[in-house]
């Protein structure tokens, strides 16, 4: 798989991971879903998997020394993106937790 | 001692006293590294890699310690002691 | 002195942040620009807008240029003065050729000894040349590389070269930054709960603090490791133990290690010709490939030039990993025989190479570079929101008490933050406006930078009076408008003076120039947006009343 695709998937995986981590908190869940209590344990488990998957994808794309840096910075970018989305357009994160869950 | 003077003392201790303490740390770390068989470059690099962790710690401690006198004593005294110890180790035959 | 540990850490965070924040935000901003320093060079010097080239033939192209290099005129004049007016005897002692995967042009350096003891710092002079590797010609006029020769040195030493005082100030601010990060984490009560919290619609103090916490915590690994690695890179300057207290022991140890490696520490004093360096480069590349790490040449260095004991070192460019240059192979210069192949790095060297490489970024990875820019901008935002929070919190108290503190903190913040943006964009505009044939063009561009910044300073101070009534200063908005205007003007001037407008560079895929133009357009739009929002905020009347 071409490096660029692996890197893009890693970024996406980090974003999902941080999104789920945020949604596991009641305040942010309410911002996105309006009401209710989040299934916190399940969301945090999903987040852990996504973040680990992101690291694996980074390692597949690059030399380990660079991959680690890309992974950490992807998490930084993900946290900032999720926070700004929650502040300005919380509905944009709704796709992370489809209503059927 | 006025508050302003107390603050100046703490800041000087953190920056200058801290630098002296850090210098002593580098000398001692270099000497110990050489004793452990590291090359000169590696012993020096190791000291430089560790020293800023030490410097930040002493800088923060300079402000939260109860008495400024203790800070000065530890940083200047400790710095001189470590410098002496390190230099002594380097001068001694291996 | 303080009521509690938390209280002392709060005080430390506030004052380390405020006093050195003005320096730090400058260091952070120009550091962020330095991620793309070579791309900015391409924008500033249109004749270098061609694709990056591999290291050309040393024997046919580089050696003739190196032999013709002379020391920097200013340094030569100073040396002549120190020697009492006589022209000092010059002996070239070291040649260096350096390139990275992002450099279309090649940097060549020569170190000259003044005939005295080479260990004396005064006894060494440097000369350099920049050449086009396609034909070996010198770059006419030696134009200033705005990115790598101005913004990058601004980042590492603030252009304060008198006894390296700029490096010490930057170092102190990096130390203060580490203290601010540690103390910030200590005093942040709800670090995990507020990990994603940003409430822009709350009152200014709350939303500013939210953004400060967010940009600080989200990018905490980035801020921490960049401050730490920056300090370790220059550790030799702050703790020069081997050149002072332990100099005798260092020299003995280093001479012994050089002997063990088979590399002569000093020249023999006997002249001898140089063998084919191209053959040595080919051999080096063969050996790297045999070790499973095929690569390009990053640097070639010839020590003890023209001597029997001359050594040629060939370094591999670390574009595929974090470490900068490595896997050096040392050759006997007169015969081309391999003297010493660098063994794999020790643990200590490996860690240091990683830290250094993570900061100095010679790797080939555009995604990581852009992520670094995001981290750098987060750092700037963290520092700026820190200033704003400080001012917001205190401006009412200070206004009531008739104290000027908040006013001057705010004025300094404008002067530093929007001021540096004004200076940077003004320099880019000057770069395009100044006639190509103007004598001292490089100096005029620098004057444009400093002059614009000085104007911004004066403007900020003059417009800060409303802070005395706890009103916001109009300087922020006015300088944002200036930044937007200058940024867009720079893009327009690039199109007008070089013809490389955005549509053309995008169509050709020439990203260095397209990237800078796009960044300028977006920065200008952001500045204009901020100016518009600040206007809206000022319309809402403050109910504090008039100052009698």
Strand content of chain C: 5-15%
Biggest interface found: B-C, 35 and 35 residues
Q: Would you list the SSEs of chain C in sequence order as H and E?
A: HHHHEEEEHHHHHHHEEEEHHHHHHH
Average pLDDT value of chain B? 93
- Flag low-confidence runs of chain C: 539-548
Distance between the termini of chain B: 49 Å
The quaternary organization reads as: heterotrimer
Count of the separate structural domains of chain B:
1
Task: Please give a quick description of this structure.
With 101 residues, chain A is mainly α.
Keywords:
heterotrimer; A: 101 residues; mainly alpha; 4 helices; 75% helix; elongated; B: 94 residues; 0% strand
3D structure, described in words:
The complex is a heterotrimer of chains A (101), B (94) and C (548). Chain A is elongated and about 45 Å long. By secondary structure, chain A is mainly alpha-helical. Chain A has helices spanning 3-23, 26-33, 40-61, 64-88. In chain B, α1 (3-35) packs antiparallel against α2 (40-64) and α2 (40-64) runs antiparallel to α3 (68-91). Chain B is built from 3 helices and no strands. The model of chain B has no long low-confidence stretch (mean pLDDT 93). Chain C has 548 residues and is α+β, with helices and mostly antiparallel strands. Chain C folds into 3 domains: 1-45 and 143-251 and 366-389, no CATH class; 66-134 and 252-360, no CATH class; 402-548, no CATH class. In chain C, α1 packs antiparallel against α5. The two termini of chain C are 38 Å apart. Residues 539-548 of chain C have low confidence and may be disordered. The B-C interface holds B 6-7, 10, 15, 19, 22-23, 26-27, 30, 34, 38-42, 44-49, 51-52, 55-56, 59-60, 63-64, 68, 83, 87, 90-91 and C 1-2, 5, 8-9, 11-12, 172, 175, 178-179, 182-183, 228, 231-232, 235-236, 238-239, 241-242, 245-246, 249-250, 253-254, 257, 346, 348-349, 351-352, 355.
């Amino acid at each position: 798989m071409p490096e660029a695709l692996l890197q893009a998937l890693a970024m996406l995986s980090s974003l999902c991971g941080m999104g789920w981590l945020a949604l596991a908190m009641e305040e942010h869940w309410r911002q996105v879903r309006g009401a209710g209590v989040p299934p916190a344990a399940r969301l945090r488990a999903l987040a852990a998997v996504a973040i680990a998957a992101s690291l694996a994808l980074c390692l597949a794309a690059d030399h380990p020394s660079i991959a680690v840096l890309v992974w950490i910075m992807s998490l930084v970018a993900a946290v900032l993106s999720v926070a700004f989305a929650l502040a300005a357009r919380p509905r944009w994160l709704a796709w992370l937790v489809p209503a059927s869950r | 001692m006025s508050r302003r003077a107390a603050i100046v003392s703490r800041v000087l201790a953190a920056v200058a006293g801290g630098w002296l303490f850090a210098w002593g740390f580098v000398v001692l770390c270099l000497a110990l590294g050489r004793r452990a068989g590291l090359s000169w470059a590696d012993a020096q690099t190791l000291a430089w890699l560790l020293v800023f962790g030490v410097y930040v710690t002493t800088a923060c401690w300079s402000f939260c310690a109860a008495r400024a006198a203790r800070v000065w004593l530890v940083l200047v005294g400790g710095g001189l002691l470590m410098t002496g110890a390190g230099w002594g180790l380097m001068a001694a035959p291996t | 002195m303080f009521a509690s540990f938390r209280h002392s850490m709060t005080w430390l965070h506030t004052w380390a942040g405020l006093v050195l924040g003005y320096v730090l935000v400058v260091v952070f901003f120009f550091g962020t620009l330095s991620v793309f320093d070579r791309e900015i060079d391409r924008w500033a010097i249109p004749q270098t807008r061609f694709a990056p080239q591999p290291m050309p033939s040393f024997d046919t192209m580089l050696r003739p240029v190196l032999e013709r290099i002379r020391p920097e005129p200013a340094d030569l004049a100073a040396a002549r003065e120190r020697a009492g007016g006589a022209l000092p005897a010059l002996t070239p002692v070291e040649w260096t050729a350096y390139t990275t995967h992002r450099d279309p042009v090649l940097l060549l350096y020569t170190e000259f000894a003044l005939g005295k003891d080479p260990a004396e710092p005064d006894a060494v002079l440097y000369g350099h040349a920049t050449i086009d590797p396609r034909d070996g010609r010198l770059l006419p006029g030696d134009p200033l590389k705005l990115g790598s020769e101005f913004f990058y040195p601004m980042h590492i030493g603030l252009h304060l070269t008198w006894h390296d005082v700029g490096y010490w100030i930057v170092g102190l601010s990096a130390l203060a930054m580490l203290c601010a990060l540690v103390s910030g984490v200590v005093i942040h009560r709800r670090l995990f709960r507020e990990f994603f919290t940003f409430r822009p619609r709350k009152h200014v103090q709350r939303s500013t603090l939210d953004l400060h916490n967010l940009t600080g915590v989200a990018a905490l690994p980035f801020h921490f490791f960049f401050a730490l690695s920056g300090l370790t890179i220059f550790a030799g300057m702050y703790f020069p133990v081997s050149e002072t207290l332990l100099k005798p022991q260092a020299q003995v140890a280093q001479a012994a290690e050089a002997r063990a490696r088979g590399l002569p520490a000093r020249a023999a004093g006997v002249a001898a010709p140089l063998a084919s360096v191209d053959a040595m480069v080919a051999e080096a590349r063969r050996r790297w490939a045999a070790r499973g790490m095929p690569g390009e040449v990053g640097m070639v260095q010839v020590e003890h030039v023209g001597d029997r004991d001359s050594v040629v070192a060939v370094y591999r460019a670390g574009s595929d990993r974090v470490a900068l240059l490595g896997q050096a192979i040392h050759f006997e210069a007169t015969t081309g025989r391999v003297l010493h192949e660098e063994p794999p790095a020790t643990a200590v060297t490996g860690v240091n190479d990683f830290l250094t490489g993570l900061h100095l970024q010679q790797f080939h990875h555009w995604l990581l570079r852009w992520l670094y820019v995001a981290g750098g901008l987060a750092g700037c935002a963290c520092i700026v929101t820190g200033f704003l929070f400080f001012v917001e919190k205190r401006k009412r108290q200070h206004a009531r008490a008739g104290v000027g503190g908040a006013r001057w903190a705010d004025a300094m913040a404008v002067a530093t933050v929007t001021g540096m943006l004004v200076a940077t964009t003004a320099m880019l505009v000057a770069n395009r406006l100044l006639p190509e044939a103007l004598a001292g063009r490089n100096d005029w561009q620098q004057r444009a930078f400093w002059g614009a910044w000085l104007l911004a300073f004066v403007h900020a101070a003059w417009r800060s009076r409303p802070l005395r009534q706890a009103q916001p200063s109009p300087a922020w908005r006015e300088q944002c408008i200036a930044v937007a205007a200058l940024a867009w003007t720079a893009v327009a001037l690039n199109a007008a003076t070089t013809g490389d407008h955005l549509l053309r560079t995008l169509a050709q895929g020439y990203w260095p120039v397209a990237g800078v133009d796009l960044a300028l357009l977006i920065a200008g739009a952001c500045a204009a947006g901020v100016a518009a929002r600040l206007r809206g905020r000022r319309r809402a009347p403050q109910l504090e009343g008039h100052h009698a």
